[in-house]
TrEMBL record:
Residues annotated as transmembrane: 20-42, 48-69
Protein name: ABC transporter ATP-binding protein
Cited InterPro entries: AAA+_ATPase (IPR003593), ABC_transporter-like_ATP-bd (IPR003439), ABC_Transporter_VariousFunc (IPR051782), P-loop_NTPase (IPR027417)
Keyword Transport: yes
Lineage: Bacteria, Bacillati, Bacillota, Limnochordia, Limnochordales
GO molecular function terms noted in the UniProt entry: ATP binding; ATP hydrolysis activity
CDD domains registered for this protein in UniProt: ABC_DR_subfamily_A
One Pfam family here: ABC_tran
Length: 477
């Protein structure tokens, strides 16, 4: 067992022991009658076979019954492995959008309400009403795990099922949630708080800062870009660009017009094949495992691609359908985003009547419908009025605090400085600087230098006098 492996159990023997003994007595009683009956009617030499077979059957039944009562789940850096009796399910960590604690099954507890399930279940149960798989040896000490994509498995009685939430009962839900959080999964500690929708809709609207950079040191690498190159004929739009972005980190991506920002973002999003180099999202190669990666990525292009003859609300539903989100969850997320981005007043208007700012907000909402773990934003605040720009900045900061990695291409230096943990400056397709504001200042002209001065010095230097530091001279993580 690796050191990073954590095991979580459900071990409530007291309540199940009675059922176990009663079940065993009933089983043995039926067995005894059947074996005795068969022994009377079968000829002599077969009697031993019948008795032996009957006993073996009893033993098997007993093991089955006790097996059902065993439940243990293990968590490591890559997956959550669920075991409930003979049932097994591996949930890749990358598919977990968030988790929350629930101490009761009282009606009104929203997404994790289990009041209509008739008591503990001896095998996993799928409930279509809330699109959840329940693994409940008990109805207390519950944890709800929200998934960013639909998972499938086969369960006894119900056969193949698809779900986007798993509800577990555990001996120590607190330590399970703490372990998940330690692996970068957003965790909502409050009991019965109604899930992501309420979290998004009711979030504070002040511009709270993102998490400190130091606090992200142990976070998993959400995005790894390695020596990315894009050539068009003899010209290279991107020349060997490498960077790593951690979960919860915001990296501002700056560069002059034509520097290669959009080309880089399109390659990361899997929309443009690189000439060479690799991109990995939460450990998955963008080209080898494109389907999985698309469910983890949200991309807002510089020119939003929208269906002009749909309303904003309809467009969000359409996008949810493309990601295979369950209807109820999709509608809840659409409403939460429409509210969070103050779009309610025009949510039912045709997109073709929208201003550029309204279109950008619609594109952002669409990119967030499937709870991406990595968000690529290309000029997302362009064309937004100050209030809308503030809303978008606050939302990005909130998503980062919840563990989303954000790569933000922008020309707005104030947005970069106010929001990002680190800033990457690209010029002529090459990274010429990357680091926190302090690191960029240290490598440049002094502690009082503005980002604008740093940007102008670096980008001018590449085309002219050559006084700016090269990438390898600038501190980067
Ligand atoms: N399809 C293409 N064919 C040839 N050259 C291209 C193509 N697409 C982009 N380029 C070139 O690649 C370079 C980088 O373009 P890109 O759009 O990535 O820049 P950018 O940094 O996003 O610019 P801006 O800030 O103006 O949006 C530019 O020189 C552009 O002309």
């Amino acid at each position: 067992m690796g050191s990073s492996l954590r095991r979580f159990s459900y071990d409530k023997k007291a309540s199940s022991l009675r059922g176990l003994i009663l079940g065993l007595v009933a089983l043995l009683g039926v067995d005894a009658i059947v074996i005795a009956g068969l022994a009377l009617i079968v000829p002599g030499p077969w009697k031993m076979v019948v008795v032996g077979g009957g006993l073996a059957l009893s033993g098997w039944g007993y093991l089955l019954l006790t097996g059902v009562l065993r439940t243990h789940h293990t968590l490591d850096e890559g997956s959550l492995r669920l075991a409930y009796g003979r049932f097994r399910l591996v949930v890749p960590l990358g598919t977990i959008a968030g988790a929350r604690h629930q101490t009761s099954d009282a009606p009104g507890d929203g997404a994790t309400r289990v009041g209509r399930l008739s008591g503990p279940t001896l095998e996993p149960v799928y409930r279509p009403e809330d699109d959840a798989l329940y693994i409940l040896p008990d109805r207390h000490r519950l944890v709800a795990v929200d998934l960013s994509q639909t998972l499938r498995c086969r369960i006894p009685k119900q056969g193949p099922v698809e779900f986007t939430r798993i509800v577990l009962s555990l001996d120590e839900p607190e330590s399970f949630l703490a372990a998940l959080e330690g692996l970068g999964v957003p965790v909502e500690a409050a009991a019965g708080s109604g899930g992501r929708r309420r979290r998004l809709a009711g979030a504070p609207r002040s511009q709270a800062p993102v998490q400190a950079l130091d606090a992200l040191a142990g976070a998993p690498a959400a995005l790894e870009v390695h020596r990315l190159v894009k050539r068009y004929g003899d010209d290279a739009a991107v020349r060997g660009l490498s960077l790593v972005l951690r979960s919860g980190e915001v990296l501002a991506f700056l560069g002059s017009n034509g520097a290669g920002k959009t080309t880089t973002l399109r390659m990361i999003a899997g929309l443009l094949r690189p000439t060479s180099g690799r991109v990995r999202v939460l450990g998955r190669d963008v080209w080898d495992r494109g389907r999985e990666v698309r469910r983890l990525l949200g991309y807002v292009p510089d020119v939003p691609f929208l269906h002009e003859w749909l309303t904003a609300r309809e467009f969000l539903w359409l996008v949810a359908g493309l990601y295979g989100l369950p209807r109820t969850a999709a509608r809840q997320q659409a409403e939460a985003l429409l509210e969070r981005l103050s779009m309610e007043s025009y949510a039912d208007q045709l997109i073709r009547t929208f201003s550029l700012g309204m279109k950008r907000k619609t594109a952002l909402a669409a990119a967030l419908m499937h709870h991406p773990k990595v968000l690529l934003l290309d000029e997302v605040t362009n064309g937004l009025d100050p209030r809308a720009a503030r809303e978008v900045r606050d939302l990005v900061a909130q998503l980062a605090r919840e563990g989303t990695a954000v790569l933000l291409a922008t020309h707005h230096l104030d947005v970069a400085e106010g929001l990002a943990h680190r800033i990457a400056i690209i010029d002529g397709g090459s990274l010429c600087a990357m680091g926190s504001m302090d690191e960029l200042r240290q490598s440049g002209q002094g502690p009082d230098t503005s980002l604008e001065e740093i940007f102008l010095a670096l980008t001018t230097a590449r085309g002219g006098a050559g006084t700016g530091p090269r990438a390898e001279e600038v501190p980067s993580r």
